[in-house]
Design a protein that fits this description.
- The chain is α/β, with parallel strands linked by helices.
- It contains 14 helices and eleven strands.
Length: 344
């Protein structure tokens, strides 16, 4: 990839010629995305939406909360991505007896050296799978979320930077509520995307069975890029052009969750207890740019915003008792807002 600093294309092109040059540059530099997808498709069958969201999170430096029943290849997906990027992967199974030190590490006494030394925890990896995050108590959840936000860990008197790139994929099981500690709304907001997984299609499931029982075994993914390429790609994603009309469109969508009556959505006023935060606006803009990038485009279009809107917003809207009584979900509210707000 060419050096971003030497590029003479501004981040906000002001002419059709500049946008064309930027588009050609992004199309050229995003070629690795197709290679990455092809390698992951060899292993993960029928979860294209999840794989696409993993790439968006990785390219826009955001974390992902996955909700789905067991057995939908959540662990396999992030492990495969780590192998394709040649990065360090670690899986943490969250349980009620887990302690923060089990996650971030602690000081242990070394008898040979006669002093305390730092033992780093499993969070010191590029890709961290926090499996069933709602099984662990609040202290452990807070330790993980703090690491996600600050990108560093304090053990004893010293602070340690987490490796880059750093992506947390947290999962939660929607079918079991006993013995769980639901994430508070304010903490869920720290996840860039909340992705809801569904079962694979019949044809995909037949292929999954065939792949898992064959004597050749599961195919192994090849390394396509390295972590430094991801860091360079993140700078390129920020260069993707976003018109002021798209920015206004994003702000209108977010504002409609806070003040629905201003957008002719009076019926939503009693259904929403709180709307999306400014973090939603930032993440929607970043995710839209990343989505355009993986589609190998140098500019954002309204369809990019609409494509990622549900994943960015579904965990950022508080529903009232009236909404729950009427079986109205955040998905329904987002659909109503997208149908109402004028597309630029």
């Amino acid at each position: 990839m060419e050096n971003i600093e030497n590029s003479n294309i501004s981040t906000q092109p002001n002419s059709a010629f500049d946008i064309r040059l930027l588009n050609e540059k992004i199309e050229r530099e995003s070629a690795f995305v197709d290679l990455l997808r092809n390698e992951m498709d060899k292993v993960i069958i029928g979860q294209k939406h999840m794989l696409e969201r993993l790439l968006i999170g990785l390219l826009s430096n955001g974390h992902i909360l996955l909700e789905g029943v067991p057995g939908l290849a959540k662990t396999l997906a992030i492990n495969t991505l780590a192998k394709c990027v040649d990065a360090k992967f670690s899986r943490i199974q969250f349980t009620p007896d887990l302690l923060p030190a089990d996650l971030i590490g602690t000081m242990i006494y070394n008898q040979k050296q006669e002093q305390f030394v730092v033992k780093q925890g499993p969070i010191f990896a590029n890709f961290v799978l926090a499996d069933e995050i709602n099984r662990a108590p609040a202290k452990v959840q807070s330790a993980l979320l703090e690491a996600m936000q600050e990108r560093q860990i304090t053990i004893g008197e010293n602070t340690y930077k987490l490796p880059e790139p750093f992506l947390v994929l947290a999962t939660q099981n929607p079918i079991e509520q006993e013995g769980t500690y639901p994430l508070p709304e304010a903490q869920v907001d720290r996840f860039m995307l909340k992705v809801v997984l569904t079962y694979p299609k019949k044809e995909d499931e037949k292929f999954i069975i065939r792949q898992n029982i064959s004597k050749e075994g599961m195919p192994l993914p090849n390394r396509v890029i390295n972590p430094n390429d991801i860091l360079k790609a993140r700078d390129l994603v920020k260069e993707v052009y976003m018109d002021e009309k798209i920015e206004k469109y994003i702000v209108d969508i977010v504002y409609a969750t806070r003040f629905p009556e201003q957008y002719g959505l009076n019926e939503y006023k009693q259904l929403i207890t709180f709307g999306a935060s400014p973090r939603a606006s930032i993440n929607m803009a970043l995710a839209s740019k990343a989505y355009a990038f993986i589609k190998r485009r140098g500019y954002v279009i309204p369809e990019d915003v609409r494509a990622i809107c549900h994943d960015v917003m579904r965990h950022r809207i508080g529903l009232s008792y009236e909404a729950e009584a009427e079986n109205i979900t955040s998905e329904d509210i987002i659909n109503g807002i997208l149908n109402k707000i004028e597309v630029p």
